[in-house]
Amino acid sequence: MLGYALDRLLTLVPTLLAASLLVFLFVRLIPGDPAAILLGDTATPDQIAALTRELGLDQPLWKQYVLWLGNILHGDFGTSIFFGKPVLGVIADGAGTSLLLAVTTMGWILLIGVPIGILAAVRQGSWIDQATSGLAMLMASVPTFWLGLYFILVFAVGLGWFPSSGFPSITGEGGLLNLRYLVLPSLTLAAPNAALIIRLVRASMLDVSREDHVRTARAKGLHPLRVAIKHVFRNALIAVAGAFGFTFAALVSEAVVTETVFSLPGVGRLVVQSILRRDYPVIQGVILVVVVFYMFVNLLVDLAYALLDPRVSLK
Amino acid sequence: MGLRTWLKLAVVAGVATNIAGTAFAGGTLRYATIGEPPSLDQQVITSDLATTIAHHIFEGLYTFNAAYEPVPLLAESETLSDGGKVITITLRKNVRFHNGQPMTAADVVASLQRWGAYGSRGGLLFDNVERVEATGEYEVTITLSRPFGPWKNLLAFINGGPAIYPASIVEGASKEPLAPDGYIGTGPYKFSAWEPNRYLELVRYEDYVSPEGDPDGYAGRRSANFDRLRFIPVPDVGTRVAGVRAGDFDYAESIPGDLYAELDADPGVRTILNGGPIFGLVFTNSKAGPLKDNFALRRAIQTALDKTAALRVAIGPESLWRANGSFYPKGNVWYTEAGTENFSKADPELARRMAKEAGYNGEPIKFMVSTNYPFHYDTAIVYTKQLAEAGFNIDLQVYDWATLIEKRAQPDQWDMFFTHHGFVPDPILISVMNDNYPGWWATPEKEKLKARFTATADPAKRRAIWAEIQALIYEQVPTMKTGDIYTYNIASPALEGLAASTLIWPHFWNVSK
Q1: B262 touches chain A (CB under 8 A)
Q2: Tens-place pLDDT, residues A172-189
Q3: pLDDT tens figures, B45-56
Q4: Residue B447: helix, strand or coil by DSSP?
Q5: Does B349 touch chain A (CB under 8 A)?
Q6: Of the residues A3, A64, A133, B415, which has the maximum number of CB atoms within 10 A of its CB?
Q7: The CATH number of domain B278-485 is 3.10.105.10
Q8: Cα distance between residue B28 and residue B49, in whole Å
Q9: Are the Cβ atoms of A103 and B14 closer than 8 angstroms?
Q10: Global confidence as pTM
Q11: CATH number, domain containing residue A270
């Protein structure tokens, strides 16, 4: 398994090189001049040209790319044009929020999706199954921006239970209590993803429940709950594990709408704002980091398959 | 984190929110902004959001009172000699920068020189400046090449204006905005922290020495009552409004017109109109395309437009807009009706005839607009329909703002573009007065009037010449004003000391809760 993991890590290198080139070129293809945006409406062409020179954006593209790549190899992702701070620091701050949001959301997804999915499979065809299917459809179809605003209106404005927006760092004032800022956004983000897991757990369990070893277990007179958990759910987990992995990776990059509605300082909002500001170093940095994150989670999912199912061999 | 811990936190959170909120919010003003400023360097940045924050940190030699008259701030007094060509400014003597250094003439000279060389609006004054020198420890002398009437207004306008920094900060500074460690001013609050995407925070400057006199606009006594001012980026308007209602924010900016009636009637929220209206502008291209030099065709386009209808669609409640053709609102010293009979004729048939007489044969007219500002896009959609009814072939090109800014610098890319303008206290600061602003209006008639306008400091003469310039704008149509828009912000009713309306940017000295 270790050899497989090392092989996979080596394949990251060419993939990352290709990704860096694509990101660099695509970002530069978007019309819009960072210097003009920074200086505002009254800047003269001479002033814009002067700042463009100071930022090094007047250099040939290949030169800018080589310089950027060289700096990355030395751990320097450059300086944000907008914030004037090191890109890595800006990303790290956003990534911390995004990861916390993703972990919290995964918690909700597990809490909501797995038990309801199991229940729907065990009670296949009953009113419970019908009700959970309807609930899953509702959760999947309600737009997250609407759900988020509704949560804010009910739980922040109406009941005053949770803050309406923002997320102060858990290492600063307020400490771990600041996690309460993530309750509403994580529930918002969890809703459509939990719906997916409900449906997936149900479908996988129904597939597995038709297999011979389950019939044998039932024939032995095992308690239905024991059959459902130990013999059906455990085997169904293999299909679900992949979905968990991809959902987790996707949560980091798909949280843009939720981060905007709740004003969370995550990477999703950071990349959107950076595109609007044409903050090239931040856009490039964030996308590269997200690519690495996706590939890393992908690798973990593959390794998890081997752990969950001894028949899977990694080569 | 364990599941049980998480569940505990979720349960505790509801109880804890109010307690924690009270404990952390004491003495802090929490202002929900639409985004983040590009920088707080007032000399080179013209973003209104930057000024909203930065004018608590930085001060200029002059500022504006409630009547938009320039009055001393860091200056104490001034004398003019040699027919208005030599301006000698005496400085207040007890002012200290946030780094503890006293403010002297050397700091003012260095700041003015950097602003003159690199400042966004510095060229307007410094094109007429021969030299700036310290003629005493607390005396600065500006020698002009010719009398320049708007000098005091330009020194008082902090947005892209001559904020005073320590000489050690601005000597050697260029066009690149200063980094946060250079945010050293003389204002009632000093820069504390900027956490990207989280907040920007100012703290009270304990050694601040306030100017004297009753508060009057931005002038007079300044008392920093809050311990901290925290500016929090909240891009979603629904969240900004909900945040004020929930008590998470004390103040929120840029609220759309369609919520005005509801919020104005809500006792839990206070609406605050911005006193200086913004106005939309449709610029025409004087360098290339079918509108270049064809003033008759431009007038035909303006004749087709029903600006009242567009304002109703784009802005909403009638209390938030005025179909005002003057570049200044009624009651302002610069208000004039010169030329405004052509502001909104809404006559498509007349426009069709005028266009034909101007030689228009249905050539496409490229009209650029951005979706970043909803009222730009909504207005442009209405105008496009109105112009089509009058026989114009409008090629509406929709971009994001960054793209539009880049394209408008290229004369062959457009014929008209939509933008908006903030309230400015002197017409010389309106972008159409700048020959280099995209549109590039620099006809001999304009240049003659502009020279006369800036050569005199006599207010009555300047007002009369401005009326002539406004009439010329309606004759040559380098830009079409779309009407006055009164944007508004909302505040918690707990805030005390807020004026009924803001002058240009909201300020929070003399405010408490």
Answers
A1: no
A2: 777 888 888 999 999 999
A3: 888 899 999 999
A4: helix
A5: no
A6: B415
A7: yes
A8: 19
A9: no
A10: 0.81
A11: 1.10.3720.10
